[in-house]
Q: What sequence folds into this?
């Protein structure tokens, strides 16, 4: 059982750690948006985070977005941070302010088609599998620029930046090169000058590694456990 008062304290503590990491990196804390990751969490837990000043929420499954967006009500910005099946693109576009997981041409084509139909550009980050882990989604770094060219040519996708998930590491400093690589890729992608492709956001850093990600330029950090406590093991909740 998670106590709502702990959630408020945890949000405060995470904010302080974000601010400290920003200062160490010579950055302004306000540049960094905290996305509270609410997968498996109840509406009451989410409300506690919102009451503590959280403005942005992240879900990794469309089904959970469909249940929680109406239950939580207006106010927060929702981010889809998990991999997206093509047949779930329509509800994802309706419910999420930003999709962090654009990672393949077939998905891009469907997102583009739906955005054109709706008359509203789809705001997306491109997910990059920087570390090349077989278990992770994302486009390989070597394919990123070609993929951005394909997306830019479609016309209805607004690329706002890049996202990555670093490998799990006991010492987050060991994955710092993964974050540095995403920043370098974003710098080079910005230099391509493609239409509707900007590199405003770097979505990187989770509970275990957000300090290292901020040191390398993250401005969207996705944090679940450090706010809400441990999730039940997979398959048990
Ligand atoms: C679950 C999840 C997070 C948050 O992970 P924590 O370790 O609980 O902070 C961040 N990003 C993605 C894509 C996730 O699925």
A:
């Amino acid at each position: 059982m998670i106590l709502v008062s702990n959630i408020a304290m945890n949000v405060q503590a995470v904010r302080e750690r974000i601010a400290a990491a920003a200062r160490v990196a010579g950055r302004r804390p306000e540049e960094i948006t905290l996305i509270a990751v609410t997968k498996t969490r109840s509406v009451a837990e989410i409300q506690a985070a919102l009451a503590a000043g959280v403005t942005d929420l992240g879900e990794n499954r469309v089904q959970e977005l469909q249940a929680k967006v109406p239950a939580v009500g207006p106010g927060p910005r929702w981010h889809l941070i998990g991999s997206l099946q093509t047949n779930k693109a329509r509800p994802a576009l309706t419910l999420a302010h930003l999709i962090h997981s654009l990672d393949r041409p077939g998905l891009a084509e469907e997102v583009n088609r739906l955005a054109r139909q709706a008359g509203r550009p789809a705001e997306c980050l491109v997910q990059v599998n920087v570390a090349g882990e077989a278990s992770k989604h994302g486009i390989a770094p070597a394919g990123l620029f070609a993929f951005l060219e394909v997306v830019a040519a479609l016309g209805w996708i607004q690329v706002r930046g890049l996202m990555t998930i670093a490998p799990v590491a006991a010492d987050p400093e060991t994955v710092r090169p993964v974050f540095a690589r995403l920043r370098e890729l974003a710098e080079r992608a910005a230099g391509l000058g493609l239409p509707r492709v900007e590199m405003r956001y770097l979505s990187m850093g989770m509970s275990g590694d957000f300090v290292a990600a901020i040191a390398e330029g993250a401005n969207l950090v996705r944090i679940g456990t450090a706010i809400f406590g441990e999730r039940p093991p997979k398959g048990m909740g």
